[in-house]
């Protein structure tokens, strides 16, 4: 079922300096598809999902739900059917779990269906410490016992609603709590929880299954648990991080592109921060036009002070768009501080941009000052994580000469057929090996 083997090394050879033109549609949101696939285990009935991104992380989670007994079948390029008639808390492959962060998302649904699950530690992007404490905190309050024994052992004799306060608005912990709470008896209140578009999408999916959830899109959700959950059909929403990536890409390559069905209601903080870099987009219905000839002048704060782009929990600027903002800023006139608060090593990739000619001072693991514009030159670089990989692809596309991006399978964990889709707009990306 996997499109590429885990051990397969992929590289992109990119010829820089080509402007793009045309229309593109974002894929479904990876971080919505993952909890929704896990939540399909909550019912024994058939769930039909469309607009599922066909990416490595999704393929890995599909393999994991098959291990516990679910039947999963791709019925189209982006259509996935799941039927979890009989589920058992089988041993999950530690290597597969360590490849994706989302393996932890099986905790809530498996507790609800089987009363137990043992999960090897999750993986995901290597961008700093990936804490799981919030997952334990919230699931314990909903009636689970958690033991650390190399793997994480979750067990419950019955989930019960509770008034839960999150120590931080963790995205995947909120998703686990939602799945546990819909199956718990009584009412649950989740306070200080996450509210990202993918959390909202999961909540809507659960409602379509029969759950009762209030407060979607806010940091307090109320769940009236214990309702019977049935099969349903659901379309995964567009990936707002991919939209942010496309905006940055269009701006630095001086291209005009139209992003169709961009999910504009989720783009306010993204658009606001690109405007700080002198990049303005036009909203036309649910499409987003990135016009050519952007000003690309960083707007100082009032009084001429250096402005700041910082990530924060939703609805503020998403952490996953930070690497894209950094590479985009290298092509803008002026100076800006980029402040990443969530992960200790997400910014380390800037040394690769510096090697290409970018003017960046990494002040500490969380803050970088970018001064632009800088002429970038093609180089051989390696992608450490999904978003840094995309940032390097963007850099390579606006650089003079040819670049090679090694470890591009990282990019493909999060972006579907990105080489093909960008080449259709005029990019020159050669994937090695070619797609089979
Ligand atoms: C599969 C999935 O959905 N992955 C996303 C999810 O990961 P994930 O759910 O793993 O990330 P969390 O939301 O739990 O937290 C991420 C990190 O940020 C820190 N933290 C969190 C909240 C906060 O207000 N302040 C803060 O500093 C945490 O300590 C942690 O180190 O959310 C992250 C933050 O949006 C994204 O980068 C990931 O793409
Ligand atoms: C950090 C990311 O993903 P994950 O949490 O799956 O590692 C990301 O999508 O940028």
TrEMBL record:
<dbReference type="GO" id="GO:0005737">
    <property type="term" value="C:cytoplasm"/>
</dbReference>
<dbReference type="InterPro" id="IPR050068">
    <property type="entry name" value="MurA_subfamily"/>
</dbReference>
<dbReference type="InterPro" id="IPR005750">
    <property type="entry name" value="UDP_GlcNAc_COvinyl_MurA"/>
</dbReference>
<dbReference type="GO" id="GO:0008360">
    <property type="term" value="P:regulation of cell shape"/>
</dbReference>
<dbReference type="GO" id="GO:0019277">
    <property type="term" value="P:UDP-N-acetylgalactosamine biosynthetic process"/>
</dbReference>
<keyword id="KW-0961">Cell wall biogenesis/degradation</keyword>
<comment type="pathway">
    <text>Cell wall biogenesis; peptidoglycan biosynthesis.</text>
</comment>
<dbReference type="InterPro" id="IPR036968">
    <property type="entry name" value="Enolpyruvate_Tfrase_sf"/>
</dbReference>
<comment type="function">
    <text>Cell wall formation. Adds enolpyruvyl to UDP-N-acetylglucosamine.</text>
</comment>
<feature type="binding site">
    <location>
        <position position="101"/>
    </location>
    <ligand>
        <name>UDP-N-acetyl-alpha-D-glucosamine</name>
    </ligand>
</feature>
<dbReference type="InterPro" id="IPR013792">
    <property type="entry name" value="RNA3'P_cycl/enolpyr_Trfase_a/b"/>
</dbReference>
<dbReference type="GO" id="GO:0008760">
    <property type="term" value="F:UDP-N-acetylglucosamine 1-carboxyvinyltransferase activity"/>
</dbReference>
<keyword id="KW-0963">Cytoplasm</keyword>
<keyword id="KW-0573">Peptidoglycan synthesis</keyword>
<feature type="binding site">
    <location>
        <position position="320"/>
    </location>
    <ligand>
        <name>UDP-N-acetyl-alpha-D-glucosamine</name>
    </ligand>
</feature>
<feature type="domain" description="Enolpyruvate transferase">
    <location>
        <begin position="14"/>
        <end position="422"/>
    </location>
</feature>
<keyword id="KW-0808">Transferase</keyword>
<comment type="similarity">
    <text>Belongs to the EPSP synthase family. MurA subfamily.</text>
</comment>
<protein>
    <recommendedName>
        <fullName>UDP-N-acetylglucosamine 1-carboxyvinyltransferase</fullName>
        <ecNumber>2.5.1.7</ecNumber>
    </recommendedName>
</protein>
<dbReference type="GO" id="GO:0051301">
    <property type="term" value="P:cell division"/>
</dbReference>
<keyword id="KW-0133">Cell shape</keyword>
<dbReference type="GO" id="GO:0071555">
    <property type="term" value="P:cell wall organization"/>
</dbReference>
<dbReference type="GO" id="GO:0009252">
    <property type="term" value="P:peptidoglycan biosynthetic process"/>
</dbReference>
<feature type="binding site">
    <location>
        <begin position="30"/>
        <end position="31"/>
    </location>
    <ligand>
        <name>phosphoenolpyruvate</name>
    </ligand>
</feature>
<keyword id="KW-0131">Cell cycle</keyword>
<dbReference type="InterPro" id="IPR001986">
    <property type="entry name" value="Enolpyruvate_Tfrase_dom"/>
</dbReference>
<dbReference type="Pfam" id="PF00275">
    <property type="entry name" value="EPSP_synthase"/>
</dbReference>
<feature type="active site" description="Proton donor">
    <location>
        <position position="125"/>
    </location>
</feature>
<feature type="binding site">
    <location>
        <position position="342"/>
    </location>
    <ligand>
        <name>UDP-N-acetyl-alpha-D-glucosamine</name>
    </ligand>
</feature>
<keyword id="KW-0132">Cell division</keyword>
């Amino acid at each position: 079922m996997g499109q590429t083997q885990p051990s397969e090394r992929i590289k992109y050879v990119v010829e820089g300096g080509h402007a793009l033109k045309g229309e593109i549609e974002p894929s479904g949101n990876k971080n919505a598809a993952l909890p929704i696939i896990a939540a399909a285990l909550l019912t024994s009935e058939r769930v039909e999902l469309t607009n599922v991104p066909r990416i490595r992380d999704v393929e890995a989670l599909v393999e994991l739900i098959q291990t516990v007994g679910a039947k999963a079948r791709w019925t189209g390029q982006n259509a996935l059917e799941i039927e979890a008639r009989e589920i058992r808390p089988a041993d999950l492959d530690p290597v597969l779990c360590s490849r994706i962060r989302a393996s932890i998302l099986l905790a809530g649904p498996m507790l609800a269906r089987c009363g137990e699950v043992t999960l090897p530690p999750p993986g995901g992007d290597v961008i700093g410490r990936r804490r799981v404490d919030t997952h334990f905190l919230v699931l314990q309050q909903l009636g689970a016992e958690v033991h650390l024994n190399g793997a994480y052992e979750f067990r419950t004799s019955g989930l019960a609603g509770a008034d839960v306060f999150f120590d931080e608005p963790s995205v995947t912990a909120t998703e686990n709590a939602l799945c546990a709470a819909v199956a718990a008896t009584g009412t649950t209140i989740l306070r200080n929880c996450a509210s990202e578009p993918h959390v909202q999408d999961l909540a809507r999916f659960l409602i379509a299954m029969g759950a009762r959830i209030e407060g979607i899109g806010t940091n307090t959700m109320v769940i009236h648990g214990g309702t019977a959950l049935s099969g349903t059909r659901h379309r995964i929403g567009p990936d707002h991080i991919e939209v942010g990536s496309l905006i940055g890409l269009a701006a630095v390559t001086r291209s005009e592109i139209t992003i169709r069905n961009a999910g504009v209601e989720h783009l306010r903080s993204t658009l606001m921060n690109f405007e700080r870099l002198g990049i303005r987009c036009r909203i036309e219905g649910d499409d987003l036009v990135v016009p050519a000839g952007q000003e690309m002048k960083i707007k100082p704060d009032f009084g001429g002070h250096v402005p700041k782009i910082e990530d924060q929990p939703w609805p503020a600027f998403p952490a996953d768009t930070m690497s894209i903002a950094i590479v985009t800023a290298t092509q803008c006139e002026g100076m800006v501080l980029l402040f990443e608060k969530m992960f200790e090593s997400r910014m380390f990739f800037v040394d690769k941009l510096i090697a290409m000619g970018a003017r960046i001072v990494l002040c500490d693991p969380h803050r970088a000052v970018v001064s632009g514009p800088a002429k970038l030159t093609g180089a051989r670089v390696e992608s450490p994580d999904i978003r840094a990989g995309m940032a390097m692809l963007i850099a390579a596309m606006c650089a003079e000469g040819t670049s090679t991006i090694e470890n591009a399978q990282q990019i493909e964990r999060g972006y579907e057929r990105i080489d093909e889709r960008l080449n259709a707009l005029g990019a020159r990306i050669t994937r090695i090996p070619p797609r089979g």
